Amino acid sequence: xxxxxxxxxxxxxxxxxxxxxxxxxxxxxxxxxxxxxxxxxxxxxxxxxxxxxxxxxxxxxxxxxxxxxxxxxxxxxxxxxxxxxxxxxxxxxxxxxxxxxxxxxxxxxxxxxxxxxxxxxxxxxxxxxxxxxxxxxxxxxxxxxxxxxxxxxxxxxxxxxxxxxxxxxxxxxxxxxxxxxxxxxxxxxxxxxxxxxxxxxxxxxxxxxxxxxxxxxxxxxxxxxxxxxxxxxxxxxxxxxxxxxxxxxxxxxxxxxxxxxxxxxxxxxxxxxxxxxxxxxxxxxxxxxxxxxxxxxxxxxxxxxxxxxxxxxxxxxxxxxxxxxxxxxxxxxxxxxxxxxxxxxxxxxxxxxxxxxxxxxxxxxxxxxxxxxxxxxxxxxxxxxxxxxxxxxxxxxxxxxxxxxxxxxxxxxxxxxxxxxxxxxxxxxxxxxxxxxxxxxxxxxxxxxxxxxxxxxxxxxxxxxxxxxxxxxxxxxxxxxxxxxxxxxxxxxxxxxxxxxxxxxxxxxxxxxxxxxxxxxxxxxxxxxxxxxxxxxxxxxxxxxxxxxxxxxxxxxxxxxxxxxxxxxxxxxxxxxxxxxxxxxxxxxxxxxxxxxxxxxxxxxxxxxxxxxxxxxxxxxxxxxxxxxxxxxxxxxxxxxxxxxxxxxxxxxxxxxxxxxxxxxxxxxxxxxxxxxxxxxxxxxxxxxxxx
Length: 692
Prior knowledge:
By secondary structure, the chain is an alpha/beta fold.
């Protein structure tokens, strides 16, 4: 496979990238270089080309005027001149799209082999890729890295207030519409950030969290030079450290961290504040946004008279970063990312691997990181008080800090570049495969995911092998998870790709497209569940029910309201009664004694399964369903061939309504196989029994 990456922004070179040199020389370059390094290690990849702009700028050095630069034996950077010969910020790159595309098309046509796919990074690169696709027929995938619509909302700007930003948003929307596949870093990006675009199709977006080589951060030693660069600012350099490391741009919200520190005498007493905000000689010579941000930080330090308590070194080298984290770790410190929105959060992984607890924005990728690793606290980045409270909570509780620091060690396994590249290449390769599964299946198997299909690695491998030998069996999942969360966990666990995804407790249905990779939402089912459903009315009623705590905004869906309960008896009855008094007919699902979902009356796993069955033209006795907990009850109750896996909870096996179910001896995915074989044997025995 020959993969061609397109990335026009910033100062991209093979080694010693000067991150923060310009406002556009940031994390996307680090992501790209790490990705191509991991890709090159895969024998399935024959060649990688990174296409970027060629420009001359004496201030930035001569490396970027070179036509080509070799990264490794498989990978090279190729630079193309555009109409403007000098460096341009991303806001001006739209003028260079046509000329860059001309150069790229000429380059491709001169090669012995054409790329199998183009991977565009940022919207301007997607505009180039769309032109190349139109001329040469090469499909492209798209990674946004950050989104203009999110930036516009964070800045509180109306449409039309910033022409450059509006143009970027339109380019992103066009990319979303044209790309064969959109790769997102987090659930927040896939389900919240992209949802504001008019071309939003959730089934064409896949979550693929970036990997990271974290070995140099785990247990990294301190460095005398780095320690000295920080200590020269501080009166008590051995105090705990609140560390921030980010480019000095408005969206990173570093000023809010300084305000939070300046407004909290308790925080100042507990720790020093250390901010590494890019590199600079003279902040007045920085790009506009960077200069404004640095000036604001310095002004706030002066306003709150924080001299001697805040360190803000002007420069650091890329190789210094592990020692910067180690400096904070050795002083019992924490790492803070207060960004208005963080598409992923690479620095959070690095800090965690180095042993630092996190205080991170609740907007973006940090949701996934903290949920998976349990290594910090999420805060509202627009609340200075919340930032201060989160930091003080960890710094004042030694046991909590130790627990978060220890949990951070798990990030290395969760965010690995080798695993990332394997999933990435599988997605690229599958785009070319037409015909997903049996066109006219004879049977249908629908499984719950958590603790049913997944939960046992060996069971998943066994299930995958067994599934390949079932050509007439359509396979799907039914879960309380969102669509993107469901696919992400299945891919992480190497589960077979489902042909149908019933998500958000039956309120959404997606079908696998014929390309075998993307999905399409079922419009008929959406129309069915939308009838007589008033989400806002239900939410207002439930706000008055004691003992209900709304789950995070990311868990709320258009047709699902999700809450935590305290396991109090009778809570389901109280919720139903409150809804009925308001004249609202809703479905209420309670599981694991803690999670409560309120859905449209027509939405459930069971009704969704029956809808899919009818859509496939199957009879009820051709369907198998499998589950393990309370949110599977309705599905298990309504489908005759119901399987309860051996590791069930919520007393399923003893429920009279589930007496028809088969309770497997095996757990997880093996229990699913056992149940299917049981019902098949039973059907064969009935067919062989002579008629009286």
